[in-house]
């Protein structure tokens, strides 16, 4: 799924980036595509626009993009914690509510 201007604006707001540089925009687009790909490989398809599942899906993508954007430095100092439990619950909920194909 391509990063539309509308989706990009929402992602920039979530990441609190007011005046992004060209490099930041490119990085965000790459991270967005990686997050969408991760969810797809995890068995979560893109929900229809305007549904509660779509809001959950977008929140998961936003979380992954911001997390990876913040952790793009070569080294990390301090305590490293596991993924946010709320994020893990969202992923689980999306997987459990994935529509089943007719077969």
Which structural class fits the helix and strand makeup?
mainly alpha
Note poorly predicted spans: none
Averaging pLDDT over every residue, what do you get? 86
Radius of gyration in whole Å, from Cα? 15 Å
Strand percent estimate: under 5%
Morphology call: globular
Q: Count of DSSP helices? A: 4
* Biggest sheet details: none
Task: Give the domain tally.
Answer: 1
What's the assembly state of these chains?
A: single chain
Question: What is the ordering of alpha helices and beta strands?
Answer: HHHH
* Quantity of strands, as a count: 0
Would you mind describing this structure in some detail?
- The structure is a single chain.
- With 103 residues, the chain is mostly helical.
- The chain has one domain (5-96).
- The chain contains four helices and no strands.
- The chain has helices at 5-15, 22-41, 52-70, 85-96.
- Helix 2 (22-41) packs across helix 3 and helix 3 (52-70) runs antiparallel to helix 4 (85-96).
- The longest helix is centred in the first third of the chain and has 20 residues, at 22-41.
- The radius of gyration is 15 Å and the shape is globular.
- The chain starts with a helix and ends in a 7-residue tail after the last helix.
């Amino acid at each position: 799924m391509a990063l539309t201007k509308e989706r990009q604006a929402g992602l920039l707001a979530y990441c609190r980036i007011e005046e992004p540089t060209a490099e930041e925009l490119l990085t965000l687009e790459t991270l967005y595509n990686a997050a969408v790909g991760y969810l797809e490989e995890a068995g979560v398809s893109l929900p229809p626009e305007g549904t509660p599942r779509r809001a959950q899906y977008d929140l998961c993508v936003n979380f992954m993009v911001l997390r990876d954007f913040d952790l793009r430095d070569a080294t990390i100092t301090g305590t490293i914690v596991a993924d946010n439990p709320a994020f893990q619950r969202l992923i689980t909920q999306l997987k459990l509510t994935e529509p089943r194909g007719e077969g």
